[in-house]
User: What shape does this take?
Amino acid sequence: MAIGRGSSVEIVDRTDNRTIRILTGHTGWVTAVAYSPDGTQLATTSWTTLPASGTPPPANTPPPSPATPMP
Assistant: This one.
């Protein structure tokens, strides 16, 4: 099971509620998580804060860390 927790996603074993992995990299609150139909991929979305001007963050803002493939 995947659960959005703040700006991270927690992967939990449903049989014993044990945390398997925590995925990080979003800069805003995670708003949705969804597995692909075959269960091999996970998609996430989050809120991102933009300046009042609506311009994107500076170019030196680090990109989100890549998701680790599920075993």
